[in-house]
Amino acid sequence: MKYFLLIIFALVFSSLFSDQLPIVVDTNRFLDDASNTIFDFNYQLAYNSLQFEKDVSGFKAGLKVEYTILKDEEIVNQGDFISKLIFPNQEMTRSGKLYRDKISVTLPSSSYSMKISFTDINSSQSTTWSQNLTILRRDTFLSDLEFSSNIVADTTDYLDKFHRDGQLFFVSSNHIYSKGTIDSLYLYYELGNKQFPVGELFEKITIFKDDDTVGVVTRDLNCHGAKLSQQRKIDISELKAGYYNIIVELHDPISNASIVSKDYFSIKQSNISNYRLFIELEDEITLLKYFLPSTKTKIWKELSVEGKQQFIDKFWEINNEDTSTKRNEFFELTKTRIQYCNEHFSYFKDGWNTDRGRIYIKYGKPDDIVVGDTGIQTKYPQKRFEIWKYRIHNSLTYLFLDFSDTNNHKLIFSENDPHESGSPQLEAYLGEDFDMGLLN
């Protein structure tokens, strides 16, 4: 049996239930070598669900997790810990990218229950999750199913708790996938049992939608008398939006024993629509070049009008980290920054298409701005300059010079940004008496 909890009201109506933290919890069970049941409590929430506070080291948030294990209503174990999140810039704090973690406990029998409380340290928002726990049969040869849409090859100790067969297997606690965003999902489960080993197995994976079979995969397996981990790639590219049941069936032809593990996943309709910020398509690609390398944009001229629009849509969708809502926060943030640039950096052309506009759109408001005039000891007339510093974003520094006194500041110096270059005549423009310490 599979346990899961979707805190639907917190996810869908978070504005109405603002005291609830929108946590999604999913429980999966596996057997250890002694046939005790390992319970993995996977949980996730979006970064923008937490309250971040700024200090000298960046934007910080904390999630306090308190867990209690009870047997017959009596506490047998409890603990707590705080997960700290630190980002150098505010963009990540506003994103829908998911923070994931898990708690694992091993239990020898049923009659236990688990309670987990999650609290946002800065806002005091909290949610409590609880569940009665039923162990797997000690002679079972099939675990529960884990779902993921994001696996990465990794043999280091990084995030060891998410390792599955030499890969980082980020569990999708809510089992929800956006159509068009991914083409495949992945299943992980374990076969066999060291205490009660099995040999040859016949495996059948069936996917149902509204009682109709939409996919079947079968194969013969050999557990070699021991536990065997399985990872299956499921193609969902042709599946329509909706709710699907998935059943993994195993049959041991020697003992004639059979076992089934059931679960579900859901595909939601992608919210792709024509993202347009400008009247002219060429302005759109100019903006996208702020974020993309030339290797990604060189095909632009070869695309049809429809192809160019699809190129634009794909860019915004890929950078939309929270696909569970109709909003694309990255698109909205960029739009807001363009408006700011047009209001403050325009001269004979729109501010978004200037040097200052490009940097502002990519990185937002500087942490510090120094304004002044160039030195006297220069062959050029004194000019107004601006120095922008991003000290909690990779220590980026930019110096802009207003050559024509028209608010058209040109970038003549950059530091720690491999995508920007300065002017070889920097010292000549600034003058020998310019205080270079201002750039520190």
Would you summarize the structure shown here?
By secondary structure, the protein is mostly beta strands. The protein contains 8 helices and 23 strands. Helix content is 15%, strand content 42%.
- Report the uncertain regions: 1-18
The beta-strand count equals 23
Indicate the multimeric state. Answer: single chain
> In one word, what is the shape?
elongated
Largest sheet properties: 5 strands, antiparallel
| First and last CA, distance | 60 Å
Strand content: 35-45%
C-alpha-based Rg, rounded: 28 Å
- Tally of helical segments: 8
Task: Describe it.
With 440 residues, the chain is mostly beta strands. The chain folds into three domains: 1-136, Immunoglobulin-like; 139-270, Sandwich (Immunoglobulin-like); 281-439, no CATH class. Helix content is 15%, strand content 42%. It contains eight helices and 23 strands. Strands 4, 5, 6, 8 and 9 form a five-stranded antiparallel sheet that branches. Strands 11-12-10-14-17 form a five-stranded antiparallel sheet, with no helix packed on it. A five-stranded mixed sheet has the order 13-19-18-15-16, with no helix packed on it. The longest helix is centred in the last third of the chain and has 16 residues, at 329-344. It is elongated.
